[in-house]
Amino acid sequence: MFKVGIIGAGKIARKMAKTLAAVNDMEVGAIASRSLEKAKAFADECNVKKAYGSYEELVDDADIDLVYIATPHSHHYDQALLTVNASKPVLVEKAFTANAHQAERLLTVAREKGVFITEAIWTRYMPLSLKIKEIVDSGIIGEPHLLTANLCYRVEDVARIVRPELCGGALLDLGVYAINFARMYFGNNVQKTVSNCILGATGMDMQESISLVYSGNKMANLLAGALCQSDRQGIISGTEGYIRVDSINCPRLVEVYRDYVLHAQYYCPEDIITGYEYEVLECKRCIEAGLLESPLMPHKETVSVMRQMDALRKEWGVRYPMDEE
Ligand SMILES: NC(=O)c1ccc[n+]([C@@H]2O[C@H](COP(=O)([O-])OP(=O)(O)OC[C@H]3O[C@@H](n4cnc5c(N)ncnc54)[C@H](OP(=O)(O)O)[C@@H]3O)[C@@H](O)[C@H]2O)c1
User: What are the helix (H) ranges across the chain?
Assistant: First the structure.
């Protein structure tokens, strides 16, 4: 049994626990919360054997093979560092840290300690995401020139979106998916960035548009926001056709059009549980292979995403307390 320990008994932690309950040879070995009562309630609900009232106890549990950090972005750095210092492999929710500086420091310690660490940006590990790359590279839509992606949810009242000390804003929560979508299919040879942002009452970015120009006459237009719903689609347009992805944060259907006519459809695997399983399966594979990072989301890519988001926040004047460090 591959045993995952979860830090933070919140929303995404519940989704992960319910997902792993359906994966062969895997289980949530322990849940850790700042409150033992909360951990016990989580353990009862999700059928987890061990409940800890502190994060420290979980990272010291010798039975745990991987620690999954499911707390707000603001706390990822400290908790991942705690885990790495205990020599435990770690999967850190997106956004990886508050800023690139924290990401670099954390990854340096992990490398020095020889501990596996990766970012839980689940789209990077999904079979259908990898298929999209294959489709683009096959040339079926000709030369790609334009990419559009959007991700909006109405979450403007959620504490971790509005509070600077929790690293609020739409960018680190939702925009990060659009940025990753663009990077997966257009790379990162960005020559020019133009963006626009609506700030909320607490100074956090509530809605944004990001336009990226790449070499080779490529452009990506990305939208993210916490104020409204959106269709969540991603479209990659080429000289001979285009690819429509139904949802950039959980692709289930990909359609390929040639000369404006539907040419092919691709679906996520039939045995998908929620999609959260793929990132954990990849962690298991990497740990068993003795790797310190996943080739699906290399450390330098994680840092580069954080740098890109740092630059956007700087332009918008969105500051976190840990940016001062
Ligand atoms: N991959 C995805 O699809 C996806 C979806 C949603 C969220 N996420 C990511 O997952 C992370 C958590 O999101 P969530 O929606 O699960 O958040 P949440 O429901 O608010 O849960 C966060 C948990 O973090 C812990 N925590 C520790 N310090 C905290 C603090 N100072 N304030 C608030 N909570 C604190 C709490 O657990 P205890 O009280 O038990 O210690 C809390 O339950 C974020 O980084 C987010 O971006 C990913």
Answer: 11-20, 36-46, 55-59, 73-85, 100-113, 127-138, 159-162, 170, 176-186, 277-288, 299-316
| Lining residues, ligand 1, CB within 6 Å | 8-13, 33-35, 38, 70-73, 75, 93-94, 120, 122, 160, 166, 173
Q: What angle do CA 233, 239, 241 make, to 5 degrees?
A: 45
Residue 304, CA distances (Å) to 59, 124, 189 in order: 28, 15, 11
Number of the ligand 1 atom closest to the C-alpha atom of 121: 1
Residues counted in the chain: 325
Structure tokens at 65: 């093979």
- Banded model confidence at residue 325, pLDDT cuts 50, 70, 90: low
**159 C-alpha to ligand 1 centroid (Å):** 10
What pLDDT does residue 324 have?
A: 76
Peptide bond into 182 cis (omega under 30): no
Going from the Cα of 313 to the center of ligand 1, the distance in angstroms, rounded, reads: 21
Strand 144-152 to 117-120 pairing: unpaired
Taking the whole predicted model, whether its pTM rises above 0.85 is answered as: yes
| Closest residue CA from atom 21 of ligand 1 | 10
Label residue 111 by pLDDT band (50, 70, 90): very high
Q: How much of the chain exceeds pLDDT 90, in percent?
A: 99
161-189 pLDDT, tens digit each: 999 999 999 999 999 999 999 999 999 99
79 neighbors 10 (Cβ within 8 angstroms) = no
| Ligand 1 centroid distance, CA of 7 (Å) | 9
Which protein residue's CA is at the shortest distance from atom 12 of ligand 1?
Answer: 71
Mutate to test the pocket of ligand 1, among 6, 7, 12, 35 (most ligand atoms within 8 A of CB): 12
pLDDT at 285: 98
Q: What gap in Å lies between CA 87 and CA 94, rounded to an integer? A: 21
